[in-house]
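User: Sequence recovery, please. Input:
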């Protein structure tokens, strides 16, 4: 059994074990053990990756290839580089943290954890796949459970939010499928057989006309999941109605599939198309960065604030990818990781505050630092990371993005960079505003004078997210070097044209 296939097999086995659990205690212990095993596998993969990379300079390591549908040349082909290995680690940490944050869920707990792990299975499978069709299948597996998770366990207008999210993402999937098939039917330009294998397609020159046509389809198909303006509207509504752990996985992991797919497929396989269309999508991404920041500034609901903040931060990922240079791409991957830990932590804290005060409206909160000091202090730390304070993961990521973006000599790129950088100021305003209203001042409600203390499982979930977020800021070089080495083969393909 190869190491990568276990990232699909272990969650599936955990799901099967959950089917036979009889009560809440058994369900959460089973989910916890399965998630712990996944985290252990991800940590082991990182160490194994460094050992293998020292002697193996291939683009992807630990590759395996099994025929799935021979007639269409579809394979279960797997492999990882430094980028996908890091994202697998991110996923495993957030899944485990989500299990702890959902420790006391009492409404269909078995079904909830099963749905959560089906989503995780899709994400793991997507990150390890190097076959376009297999990636698309896992992509859909990851997206589909969101409808159930929001529609059944959500709050507020959950049916509307679940349907809106599903319809928009399914529409994007249809566009993406056209793009993937376009790549497939142009994968034999050198006279070989049609193939879905990414590494094999990268050796083929896809005609410029095809690249110009299929790049925007592939980009938009993935970018909708990455909250590209103006296709972002499903995200705030979905976040607001989703249960806490689902919001954590949704923003922390699922939305990363968009940026990763753009990098791994659209940029790598259609580099001329990327150069041709980059200016247009840079404009949309820059608008998204600014719009998301101002959108967060106008909200009073904590989940909507974090959702619009995610639109802004993920807009930076798309913006950096479109800059088509090594430094910006490094920043894009670092931003994906940083945002994953940061936004999952925010949603976990929001869930804890809502569970105690029964409100997410910041105007109804106040003085929480006096009654729930631990949660409040972690909120301050997460806020400082979000606005890019040095010493946290956000600073490392955003510095790489803006330095890389400003490397372009053309006025258009530099103006777009300056506009995007200005979002940092707006971010500081809404973060400090929220912290000031929610944590400082007098306690607005007598019922908030005696709120429950933080539990062990909540602290565990928080620390799982907080430690890597700080670790990325304090010691980023090992991660950055791992990512930069993996970017090199991809940037060479772009620089040819």
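Assistant: Recovered sequence (497 residues):
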């Amino acid at each position: 059994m190869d190491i990568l296939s276990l990232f699909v097999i272990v969650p599936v086995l955990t799901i099967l074990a959950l089917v036979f659990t009889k009560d809440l205690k058994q369900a959460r212990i089973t989910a916890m053990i399965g998630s712990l095993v996944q985290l252990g596998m991800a940590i082991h993969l990182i160490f194994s990756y460094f050992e293998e990379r020292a002697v193996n300079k291939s683009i992807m390591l630990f590759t395996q290839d099994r025929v799935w549908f021979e007639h269409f040349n579809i394979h279960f082909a797997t492999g990882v580089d430094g980028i996908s290995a890091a994202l697998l680690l991110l996923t495993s940490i957030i899944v485990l943290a989500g299990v702890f944050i959902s420790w006391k869920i009492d409404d269909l707990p078995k079904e909830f954890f099963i749905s959560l792990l089906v989503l995780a299975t899709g994400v793991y499978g997507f990150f390890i796949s190097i076959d376009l069709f297999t990636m698309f299948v896992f992509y859909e597996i990851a997206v589909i459970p969101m409808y159930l998770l929001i529609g059944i366990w959500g709050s507020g207008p959950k049916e509307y939010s679940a349907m809106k999210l599903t319809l928009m993402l399914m529409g994007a999937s249809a566009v993406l499928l056209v793009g993937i098939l376009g790549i497939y039917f142009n994968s034999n330009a050198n006279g070989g057989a049609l193939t879905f294998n990414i590494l094999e397609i990268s050796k083929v020159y896809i005609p410029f006309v095809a690249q110009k046509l299929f790049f925007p389809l592939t980009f938009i198909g993935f970018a909708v999941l990455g909250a590209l303006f103006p296709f972002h509207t499903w995200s705030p509504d979905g976040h607001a109605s989703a249960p806490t752990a689902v919001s954590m996985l949704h923003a922390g992991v699922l939305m990363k599939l968009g940026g990763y797919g753009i990098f791994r497929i659209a940029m790598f396989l259609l580099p001329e198309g990327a150069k041709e269309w980059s200016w247009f999508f840079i404009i949309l991404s820059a608008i998204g960065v600014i719009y998301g920041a101002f959108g967060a500034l106008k909200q009073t609901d904590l989940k909507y604030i974090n959702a619009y903040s995610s639109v802004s931060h993920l807009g930076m990922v798309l913006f950096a990818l479109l800059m088509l240079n090594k430094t910006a791409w490094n920043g894009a991957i670092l931003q994906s990781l940083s945002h994953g830990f940061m936004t999952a932590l925010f949603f976990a804290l929001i869930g804890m505050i809502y569970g105690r005060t029964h409100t997410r409206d910041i105007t109804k909160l106040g003085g929480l630092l006096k009654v729930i000091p631990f949660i409040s202090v972690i909120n301050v730390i997460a806020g400082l990371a979000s606005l890019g304070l040095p010493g946290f993961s956000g600073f490392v990521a955003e510095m790489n993005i803006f330095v890389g973006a400003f490397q372009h000599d053309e006025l258009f790129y530099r103006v777009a960079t300056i506009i995007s950088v200005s979002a940092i100021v707006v971010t500081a305003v809404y973060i400090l505003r929220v912290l000031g209203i929610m944590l400082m001042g007098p306690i607005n409600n007598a019922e908030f004078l005696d709120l429950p203390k933080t539990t062990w499982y909540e602290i565990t979930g928080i620390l799982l997210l907080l430690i890597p977020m700080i670790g990325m800021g304090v010691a980023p070089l090992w991660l950055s070097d791992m990512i930069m080495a993996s970017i090199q083969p991809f940037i060479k393909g772009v620089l040819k044209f």
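The mean pLDDT is 86.
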